[in-house]
What we know:
Elements: E1 2-7, H1 15-18, E2 27-28, E3 31-32, H2 33-43, E4 48-53, H3 57-65, H4 67-70, E5 72-77, E6 82-88, E7 94-99, H5 106-112, H6 114-117, E8 122-126, E9 129-131, H7 135-145, E10 149-154, E11 162-165, E12 171-175, E13 185-186, E14 190-192, H8 207-217, E15 221-225, E16 230-232, H9 236-246
Parallel strand pairs: 1-4, 1-8, 4-7, 10-15
Antiparallel strand pairs: 2-3, 5-6, 8-14, 9-16, 10-13, 10-14, 11-12
Amino acid sequence: MKVVILAGGYGTRLTEETDIKPKPMVEIGGKPILWHIMKLYSYYGYNEFIILLGYKGYVIKEYFYNYFVHQSDITINLKNNRIKTHSNFSEPWIVTLVDTGIDTQTAGRIKRAQQYIGNETFMLTYGDGLSDIDINELLEFHKKNRKTLTITAVQPEGRYGKMEISYDGQIIDFIEKPKGDGVWINGGFMVVEPQIFNYIDNDMSILETEVMEKLIRAKELFAYKHKGSWKCMDTLRDKIILNQIWNTKNPFWKMW
C-alpha cells in the first residue's frame, strides 16, 4: 500500500526555517521531520511513498536524489570523476516525488497525483506531524467501517497548565499541559479509498473543508481516535520541543 505525504505548503508560521527549505525538511535530531514520518510507516512495513511537492520542492528532490551517497562511505577520483561506493546503509524505500504546483490546495495536490496512486486504497498524512500511532490498527479500523476516508483524531496537548481552584481560592489540583478540553482535531495519518477522487473538483479544492464536508454529507468520513501521543511542528517553538523530546533518547514516535 502506498503512503502519500502532503509536503507542498509554505510553512508560514515557521519562516525562521522555511525561508530556505520546505517545512517537511526542517530537522529533528539532524534528520528532516519528513524522514521521521517515513521511518514510522516503514516500521509497519509500508515502504512505497508518494511525496506531493510544492513550495521549494526541489530541496526534497535533491535530498532523495543524493540520499544513497549521503548514507555511504565513498572514494572520489578527482582525475576522472569516478566515484566508488563503500559501506552503505540506506532505506528500503521507493519514493515518487510529484510536483503538484506552488499554490495548489491539499485536495488538489492529491488529485494531481492520481496517476501515481492508482485505483487502490492508500495512506495519507501531512509532512509535519509525529505520533506513536499503530498504523496497522488504524488500517483495520478503516477496513471494518468501509468508508471513503478515515482520519486519525487526536487531542493536542494544551499550551498552558490547568489549575483547579476551590471557591475560597485554594488550588486543589494542577495539571501541566493537559489534553485540550476534550476537543478532537484532525491529526493526519489517514486511510483513503480511491473514491476520494470523485469528491475533488480542481486544484483549489481543500481536503479539510469542502471535500470533508462532502464526505460528511455522504456519511463517508470516519474518525479513528488515537489516545496516545501526537505533535505537529507548526512553529519554531514546536521544533524546539520536538528536538528536546528527541534528545531524551526515548521520543514517543521512534518505533524503529
